[in-house]
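ugh ok so i messed up the first submission bc i forgot one of the chains. this is the corrected input, ALL of the components this time, i swear. 459 residues overall. if the numbers dont match what u have on ur side tell me asap before i send this to the collaborators (the ones from the other lab, u know who)
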Amino acid sequence: MPRFQCTCSIAPPDLLAWLAVEGDPTQRLAAVRALATSAAIRSQRAVVGHLSRRLNINTGTMMGPELASGQRLSVYDNQKQGRPFLPGVLARDWGQPPVADVAVNQAYDGSNATYEFYQDVFQRDSLDGKGLELVSSVHYGVAFDNAFWDGSQMVYGDGSGRIFQVGGLTRSLDVIGHELTHGVTEFTAGLVYSKQSGALNESFSDVFGILVKQYSLKQAASESDWLIGEGTLVPSLGKALRSMINPGTANSGDRQPGSMAGYVDLPDNNDPRNDNGGVHINSGIPNRAFALAATALGGNAWETAGRIWYTVLTTQLSANAQFIDAANATVETAGKLFDSRVQDTVHNAWQQVGVLP
Amino acid sequence: MKVVIVRGGGVAGLTARTELDSGALPKSAAKTLAGELARANLDDVPEPPGTVSWPDAQLYEISVEGRERSITVHFTDESMPENVRLLMAWVDSRPERIESIE
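and heres the new structure output, hopefully the right one now
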């Protein structure tokens, strides 16, 4: 049984959640504390996720009071039932040994590797920097060909076998790192998911997704394949979702440009062909800038280029930042954190993709 | 009557098209499709607000081209009505459907 089921009534937890968002400062704090300390609620994280869905708000909106549950992560089984059943049935709690379900273990291990990456490399305690529990639901919907961050938790479909391989969506560590980084972005720069700011949002997810993989494999920039989601698509479609070093070459439907000369100017108008104004298309440009900078700098990408991009994402960018803002901020930050050689290398990378003149 | 489902965005960023022509269906299945469409009530699917609060949520378009009238609606993983999800699951289950990547 799920911990909470959708009902049509306004139950007390809903009122608390409403107060947590809409109340005056005293009410907000009291409401969140009440939610957090309720004896009936073991995992406030799942509760906050559930309530934020019902109230149609993002967890980031409720920032301020701590959302930490004291445990790093948990994985739920949605049992193919979709949104009304999120998160689903607890399948593997933090600290528990592996279970028979491969997808559950992959979500567990991938979330854990992502947590360790952010903690070890950037001393960031989870997505919000305050120990937010990483909640994942696997087996979402029927033959569902997607994985996403819903503003409060990770959701993974099983794949239909027509676009994604069955089981493909939890297989790739960089895809898990990508999705969880959407959470980091939500709690920091808050990049608006439309056109250039949306393409930057996507690109930061690919950047830290690939860095989670490189860090986990202890792989230098020169050894990386720079592929996102390798082996997740059915082979007839292609080898990966995206190539950061050679955008546009990962699969047969890959429309990514590698420089501003190929920028695809699409409207953000709910048409699925337009991808929120090309957020998964034009992300190829900043992706390639990162891959070029990281390979030119050499060594471990998470120690140099990764540190620059992390500082920029978490401290330098506003929600409506454009490519030029990200370029200028990374160049400036490279000079502050390192030296003029690193700064010139980052500048050169953005020049090569046509963002800086 | 032709039903076309276009799915875009999502973590893959691919645009996938699924087409089902009721003329290709056995009579009983064509009747079921009409029932699924009636239950999905596409006339009442509101256009999404245009801001996605779930990164990597998929975007959807369903077009129904009938003899007398046609309709096109948009929605997202976030705003998808349950009966529309069931309609898509039914279309996806039919061997007569034609799928392509745009």
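quick check: The longest strand of chain B covers residues 2-9. that seems consistent at least. Chain B has two helices and five strands.
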